[in-house]
Design a protein that fits this description.
With about 80 residues, the chain is mainly α. It contains three helices and no strands.
Length: about 80
């Protein structure tokens, strides 16, 4: 069974708070991630968390600025690839 958008978004939020962002940073699912300081290594951490928790592989060709823009856009892309 595929993970839902809400489950993947929750994993991404938790990984952001635990591994990437300063705990004082606040964000919503539609907050742009790059201005928060999320860099390429941060995205690797986020995707590893999703892979670990939901067994979803994120193909390199899906790593576009549009897909990586926000928690919401990343969760949407991850749901899409998990259903392919």
């Amino acid at each position: 069974m595929s993970a839902s958008h809400a489950e993947i978004a929750a994993t991404l939020r938790a990984a952001l708070l635990d591994q990437v962002l300063d705990p004082s940073v606040t964000f919503q699912d539609d907050t742009p991630l790059a201005p928060l300081g999320v860099d390429s290594m941060s995205y690797v951490r986020l995707l590893l968390a999703v892979e670990r928790d939901h067994d979803i592989q994120f193909p390199d060709e899906e790593m576009t600025p549009e897909n990586l823009a926000t928690v919401d856009s990343l969760a949407t892309a991850l749901v899409r690839v998990s259903q392919d």
